[in-house]
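Lab notebook page, bench 4
Experiment: in silico fold of construct C2
Operator: M.H.
Input chain length: 304 residues
Purpose: comparison with the prior construct
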Amino acid sequence: MAMDTADSLPIVSILDDEDHFSKCFGVFRKRINERDMTNDDWLDVIFTDIGPKVCHSVGQSTKVTLKALGVGSGDGRTEDYFLSHFKDHFAQIHQCLIEPNKLLAEQHKKNIQQTNWKEVIYDWREQTLEEYMEGVKELEKGVKYHFISAIHSLYHMTNPEESLEFLYDQLEENGILLFALASEKSTSGRIGPGIPSQYSKQVINSSRFALDYFDTRGIPYALHIRDFTLDVSGCLDKDISEEASLLLDFLTHVKDFCKAPLPPGIKDTVFSTLREMLGNSQSQETIHPHHFIVVKRQHDQKLK
């Protein structure tokens, strides 16, 4: 949190207000191409890649247990999709879910009440990844997982390199690590770098960090790119609507972005970036590509 003047509003990240974050995320989900977000075809492509690899890491026997970890699982839509496919391959699944946002975690719990998957045992952790890491360090030895997913949840890591190394190290041999991050060419990937992390609490803004990280360490990965579109209509209006304002809050991760007393030039940069992305098109949609990065744990290979 930062203060501009004694009579001004504080500059607050949306991460500091769970209710506001949920509202912003809801608008983002509404504005991103709903056909793509509700159609599981894109998840089918990802599962076609990771499914056989995860099954291989566990073994082909249906009498063994799959150990899975979800980092920043939110309402669990993606994790539940994978579980719905994995449950036919294993007698039991242990699913550990890390989610610090109470509202999103509660929504996930409500969603799984409708599934009645008796073979799935859930371990709920109302924690940040850093808090979970500290707990594992105190035990000196954490649980090893066959499958770890981190779906759009690594932007706020305090120490990105340490977090990536930790997650990779928590994999069983041949285990699979799946990241989903916005591309640097996405709307948030282009806007994010213009917002100092002291305000947004975003340490990384796109997939570029993770890609470079694995490239420099010689760790192979598979990259799946999915182009979504994002409706940013109203964000450049003189009188911005409440919904457009919430979308801007999500893209910048600054609560009440339009009113926040940010240093000069930051808001102009955000709006000029949006104008540039829209160009001369009459459409109010920007291209919002997502990167899905699949990493396989190599035999006795650690990240350094």
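Observations: Residues 1-7 have pLDDT under 50 and may be disordered. Strands lie at 65-71, 92-98, 120-125, 145-151, 171-182, 221-231, 285-296.
Next step: discuss at group meeting.
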